[in-house]
Amino acid sequence: MKKRVLSMLLAATMAVTTLVGCGSSTSDTKTAAENGEAVEEAEDDAYLSETEKIIKEAEGMTLEELAQKAIEESNGKTFYGVGNSSRGKTALPLFIEYLQSIDPSYSMEYDWQQPKNNKIFEQLTADSLKPEGTFAMTLIQDGNQIESKMVQTGILDTYIPKEWAEANGTTPDEVDGYLSLQTLNKVFMYNCTGSKEYDNCWDFVAEGEHALFMDIDSEVVGKNFLYMLTEDKYAAQLKTAYDALSADEKKYFDPVIKEMEPEAASLGLGENGKYALAWIKLWVGSYNEQTDDGPICNTLVSDSATDQSGLLVYSKLRSVEESAGVSVNNIKVAAYQDGYTGMGGFGYCHYLFVTDNSPLPWTACAFIAYMTTTEDGFSAWGKDMGGYSSNPEVAKAIETTYGHSKGGYDEEGNNVFDCKNDRGYDWWTTDGGLVLEDPEYCSSVSFTVGSWIELLTKYADAAEEE
After folding, report:
1. Is the pLDDT of residue 21 over 50?
2. Residue, of 38 and 70, whose pLDDT is higher
3. pLDDT tens digits, residue range 278-287?
């Protein structure tokens, strides 16, 4: 867990050593060690903000215990939240109903804001300058900027619910990283009304391809996807996918891969870094820039989109209305096809944080615990396939309720829309080759690899020049 804490272990150890050296007994030594631990904990706590002290206490409490604290703190007040997902506004009244089930006299107003154009970081930074902030908590995406702008600066604090940790077989103290509400996936799809097949992730950057994709400067998690490709694990997967290509297919990629070899060395990447950079360069230079995933989906499922492809949020398929000329069966999910090789898409998270100057920290912790440890709390997001709760118990309950794994079956049990049968988080992160965002890695290469990407010529820019 990201905590702004300085350890006093050395001082405590020296104190114990001195006592032992003066001829103390075994019981004295044990007492000294215990005292040293107490001193260390007290010293650590001295470096915590007031909100972090509350979080530390909250991490040892159940949801019901937190609910009592929230009722005492926020009854009759207004709760302000801010997030990348509008569904926080759907979850808040459910949370209030939960608190009212404990105390019928409880009431709380709420306001949920969803800043556009990635302005959430500016909004949270400005709010952090106040002695007491406006926003109690946030639901936020883009691990790179969260790490560099929000956590390292102390603007946001990580809280790990006790029951969430237990469901994941651990304890809050042992969790290293942020608290994720859910992982969402963007997957490679292609229109199948023609004869064209995509059986390798390199097919999406082949000569003449222009996959539909939200621009990396308008939805920055797309840039994090490209950063992650340079990590050794995913670069190796790209190398494996390249090796599976035919000799004729490799001819188009080989010059680019060779060109990227010195670039990979200068950026400090591993032995397969050149394959990652080659794929990234070809992708940036070829994707057809779109404003949102919704229009991408609407295009690909139409009869007229023959041989077009895209990388988009999987859940968009749920909203497709079947009609003449439009059908979910007009597309295929690339990773679901037999023989497909390479990455099937990428996954990014919605993270939950308490603001360090939160006006209602107990209520924020209770709300976060409610969303991550109960099915009702996650229900605002639960109806979507391709969005996976970070709590395995909640994820199981959501699947039981919504049946995403059989989302393409009709009431008679016929598999009508096969691509809507979500194979689930475990499959996507193994066989499906989902590239998962790692905030710390993204932050570590955002200047090096990020600066290199900024210099690449986009397909949209090249088309304008022509």
Report:
1. no
2. 70
3. 999 999 999 9
Q: Is the dihedral of CA 175, 180, 182, 185 positive or negative?
A: negative
- By the 8 A CB rule, do 273 and 235 touch? yes
Give the percent of the chain with pLDDT over 70: 89
- If DSSP states are collapsed to H, E and C, what string results for the chain? CCCCCCCCHHHHHHHHHHHHHCCCCHHHHHHHHHHHHHHHHHHHHHCCCHHHHHHHHHCCCCHHHHHHHHHHHHCCCEEEEEECCCCHHHHHHHHHHHHHHHCCCCCCEEEEECCCCCCHHHHHHHHHCCCCCCCCEEEECCHHHHHHHHHCCCCEECCCCHHHHHHCCCCHHHCCCCEEEEEEEEEEEEECCCCCCCCEHHHHHCCCCCCEEECCCCCCHHHHHHHHHCCHHHHHHHHHHHHCCCHHHHHHHHHHHHHHHHHHHHCCCCCCHHHHHHHHHHHHCCCEEECCHHHHHHHHCEHHHCCCEEEEEHHHHHHCCCECCECHHHEEEHHHCCCCECCCEEEEEEEEEEECCCCCHHHHHHHHHHHHHCHHHHHHHHCCCCEEECCHHHHHHHHHHHCHHHCCECCCCCECCHHHCCCHHHHHCCCCCEEECCHHHHHHHCCHHHHHHHCCCCHHHHHHHC
Convert the pLDDT of each residue in 154-194 to its tens digit: 999 999 999 999 999 999 999 999 999 999 999 999 999 99
Topology of the domain comprising 184-345+405-465: D-Maltodextrin-Binding Protein; domain 2 (3.40.190)
Q: Please, what CATH class does the domain formed by 50-181+349-398 belong to?
A: alpha beta
Q: Do domains 50-181+349-398 and 184-345+405-465 have the same CATH topology?
A: yes
User: Which pLDDT value is given to residue 210?
Assistant: 97
Delimit the domains of the chain by residue range. Answer: 9-46, 50-181+349-398, 184-345+405-465
**373-415: per-residue pLDDT in tens?**
999 999 999 999 999 999 999 999 999 999 999 999 999 999 9
pLDDT bin (cut points 50, 70, 90) of residue 436 is very high
Task: Say if residues 280 and 453 touch (Cβ distance below 8 Å).
Answer: yes
Cα gap 95→91, rounded to integer Å = 6
